[in-house]
Hints:
Elements: H1 5-15, H2 17-33, H3 42-46, H4 62-73, H5 95-107, H6 118-135, E1 142-146, H7 149-167, H8 172-175, E2 184-188, H9 193-201, E3 209-212, E4 232-237, H10 249-258, E5 262-266, E6 291-295, E7 307-311, H11 314-321, H12 349-382, E8 389-390, E9 398-402, H13 406-419, E10 425-429, E11 432-438, H14 446-468
Parallel strand pairs: 2-3, 2-4, 4-5, 5-6
Antiparallel strand pairs: 1-7, 6-7, 8-9, 9-11, 10-11
The chain binds pyridoxal-5'-phosphate.
Pyridoxal-5'-phosphate is lined by residues 89, 148-150, 192, 194, 239, 241, 266, 268-269, 295, 307.
Amino acid sequence: MNKTLQDNMFQEIRNKEIFKQAQEYSFNYLENIFERNVYPTQESIHDLAIFDEELPVNSTKAKNVIEQLNQYGSPATTATLGGRYFGFVTGSALPIGLAAKNLGTYWDQAPAMNVLSPIGSKLESVVEKWLIELFNFPTNTSAGFVSGTSTANLCGLAAARYRILQKNNWDVNQKGLRNAPEIRIVTSRQAHSTVIKAIGILGLGQENIEWVDVDNQGRIIPESIPEMDENTILILQAGNVNSGAFDDFEIICEKAKKTNTWVHIDGAFGLWAGAVNELKHLTKGVENASSWAVDGHKTLNTPYDCGIILCADKEAMTSALHMSGSYIVESSERDGMFYTPEMSRRARIIELWSTMKYLGKNGIDEMILTMNQRAKQFAEEISQIKGFYIENDIVFNQVIVKCNSDKITEQVLSNIQMLRECWLGGSMWFDKKVMRVSICSWATTKNDITKSVESFKKALELEKTNANV
Ligand SMILES: *Cc1c(COP(=O)(O)O)cnc(C)c1O
């Protein structure tokens, strides 16, 4: 008798060959990732053309699918897990997170409802408590586990929108925004683009933003913030995406509290400073805000994807994100979907819980402080080289570097990227082209920094040589 597709699938489960094969590839990948070229070679990118094919008519052997993925996919990854990837603000992933994610993969849980995943719900409740304690937030704060800070910002601002309109006797879920009372939005000129995007999605209108100037580190200037009221949402930053600078929460949140203003904090990578003894002065006063967005996949180094929305006004958050249906089973325990825009989503809490359990308070402290020290080391070593300039105070994990002109900076950055010994991107900093170094990996060693600084030096020398021919 001919074997059906279903027979084959049961066979894969029974003999475990493809799982072992994938596991072996993963182990090889991990073994080499710390020494490998940080950016894929031209050749491996070129070879991705193998994927340009029509959807196959017939089933492909599972073994061959995994094999193709490994042979052509692995070399075309960026080595973000390693110690010399400084692009964007990209965290690595702790071994414990990868291992837990691997186990969780086979569970394939969706923690929308307690009945759908008791373990997912349990871990979400536990981590919610841990986060509140770690950041010293109000005890009734609630947490939603989302894909990243983009979504977390959206949720925080949705809660704010719900509450402000509700206080004006306007149920936004029912009535929408047409003829709704006005909501004011105040934020800094250097607010992250995902904040601006969320304002757009929520129908609050990007044109309505009242922009506030920043100082030379990119911090909002407290004296320049307009008079606030109870219909205002003020959005602040824990960690400027270029400089890593923190807004002055102590002064600003205090003031906002008096006027009943909703303060939302975009703390994608920087909120974690609050968990580090030597750095928590940076987030002082942040607990007086109303909502906070933060990533696990950046500073905490959980695997992708892992974002968290924390909200001191649980009712506003769950009302803004609520849904129901005749088949929904509400539990007296936690039902995750009331805290996120999605119903189904993966149980990323598995990796988040495992990472926090593994590190403990002291481990979180040690890991993040080390990133801060490596950033300082980088700044120190690079400023010894003639032709490089540091453009920011190194308060957290970000270093902004420039050369003698925009043109040179651009060329040197392109040379660094071509050398592939480390990787970083460019940005604009007060109308100047700059290179943006983000130290956000548990795996970055002192030696990685020195090696990367060497690469910067080589790249500058290359630029000089080419400029002279
Ligand atoms: C990365 C980042 C975001 C976006 O977060 P995602 O996790 O990529 O969605 C928002 N704000 C700041 C300051 C960031 O650094």
